[in-house]
Amino acid sequence: MIQRLLGKLYVQVLIGVGAGVALGVWAPDIGSDLKPLGDVFIKLIKMVFAPIIFATVVLGIARMENMKELGRVGVRALIYFEVLSTFALALGLVVVNLVQPGQGMNIDPAHLDTKAIASYTHAAEKPHTFIDFLMNLVPTSIIDALAKNDILQILVFATLFGIALSHIGARAKPVVDFLDSFTHGIFTVVGMIMRLAPIAAFGAMAFTVGKYGLGSVVSLGKLMGTMYLTCFLFVVIVLGGVAKLSGFNLWKFLKYIRDELFTVLGTSSSESVVPQLMRKLENAGVSKPVVGLVVPSGLTFNPDGQCIYYTMAAIFVAQATNTPLTMTDQLVVLGVLLLTSKGSAGVTGSGFITLAATLASLGKIPVAGMVLLLGVDRFMSEARAITNTIGNAVGTLAIARWVGAVDRKQLADALDGKLEEEGDAVPESQQDASPIGSRIARVADPHATLMH
Q: CB neighbours (10 Å) of residue 92?
């Protein structure tokens, strides 16, 4: 029994997290030197991340019977992403105003040492207009976009290439078959990398606790507690409501993806589990084309955890530095974040850079106040990453139900633990089905209804 339990990835990651925290507390000097263990794991994931995003998006679009299917899935996905992102931003704004974690700190931004955030503010020094945002969607070349792991640019080219393959019909089959075999190979590589997740979690947590110390977090504990509470409320109330409307139990679903969630907890990166999450969703009966299109898009356009963090952190800095903000000012912050949050990619540190860019563009909240967040940002990044991952997974299932691309019996069996948890349990005939409509016609539940 114990041996079987220890063989599970999420248990190994939990042990790694606990051991890392213990080492960080008892031997902080050693713990702070173990940062490379977590960094190399993230680099290994990033090594295969761009090819996976490119291939799965292309396959998802190329396997759709016509552009109406693409438009139906794409438009509904964008509507869902925008609504949920707005909910997350608004919830963060409401909670931070109610709790007021920065009230009474009375920090003078002129006396803050901003050297520690110089790298973030420098990275944030880029155009912030809507036109610049649109111009940046087009890559200089696809090789450049892949080399830089620029998700938005990869999505643009992959979408165009997928549409082109869909148009040329049978002549595209060799390319589609190659990309399908390519993704299977990449997923196998990911399986090898995931064996290192417990070691990565150990190193990342040992570094975090060793460098910043648990004691240094106490002074900003109110902000951390408020952040975790808000993420919890968002998952339970908002995503729980979405799950109920979509016809599945949120708790069972979270148990189903527990390996991925504990990996995210240890690595603080929602990118680290995207390939495994896609396989889990396919195994749960979600159409492969929909998974291939929605999951990568959701990583960029639906960062729920980071949206919560953005509004909370911005208003916290204003409260801590005694910067007066009217309700109109706060609504402007929310409106700007609706745009800037769409550039987030789920990697540790990206939220800090996006926040710096937002505050700099607003010009009212002192960017120097972000120094106050440095001590706890790494701890809060775990809440962001886990909420991003849950939001993306629940969103994919909800959108699939909306367009009628879920085998409801297979989903129920997966969540009840009646299926194997690996993607191999999904029959190849179902995985490679081209049109979404054809797949739904073959699912085991012939009476499945669409969610309108």
A: 29
Tell which residue, 297, 271, 44, has the closest CA to residue 154: 297
Backbone angles phi, psi at 49, to 5 degrees: -65, -50
DSSP string of 327-346? Answer: HHHHHHHHHHHHHHGGG--S
The residue with tokens 């159409």 is 287
Residues 358 and 336: beta-carbon distance below 8 Å:
yes
Q: What is the dihedral of CA 47, 343, 347, 109, to 10 degrees?
A: 140
Q: Which of 31-40, 400-409, 417-426 has the lowest mean pLDDT?
A: 417-426
On the question of pLDDT at 4 being above 80, the answer is no
Residue 326 CB neighbours (<10 A): 8
pLDDT tens sequence across 184-207: 888 888 888 888 888 988 988 888
Q: What pLDDT, in 10s, does the model give residues 218-272? A: 556 788 889 999 999 999 999 999 999 998 999 999 999 988 898 888 877 777 7
Could you report the per-residue pLDDT of 16-66, keeping only the tens digit for each? 888 988 998 888 889 888 888 888 887 887 788 788 878 888 887 787 766
pTM of the model: 0.72
406 — phi, psi (to 5°)?
A: -130, 130
All structural domains of the chain with their residue ranges: 2-442
CA distances for 313 relative to 113, 223, 244, 343, 352, angstroms: 18, 8, 30, 17, 9
Contact between 231 and 387 under an 8 Å Cβ cutoff? The reply is: yes
Tokens encoding 451: 């969610």
CA distance to 81, 158, 249, 304, per residue, from 342 (Å): 10, 18, 28, 10
Kindly report the CATH number that applies to the domain delimited by 2-442. 1.10.3860.10
User: What whole-number percentage of the chain has pLDDT above 70?
Assistant: 77
CB 425 within 8 A of CB 262: no
- How far is Cα 221 from Cα 324, in angstroms, rounded to an integer? 23
SS3 286: strand
Greater confidence, 276 or 253? Answer: 253
Instruction: Name the strand (E) or helix (H) holding 410.
Output: helix 408-415
Asked whether the CA dihedral 373, 377, 379, 384 is positive or negative, the reply is positive
Helices (H), 63-196: 67-99, 118-123, 130-135, 142-148, 151-168, 173-194
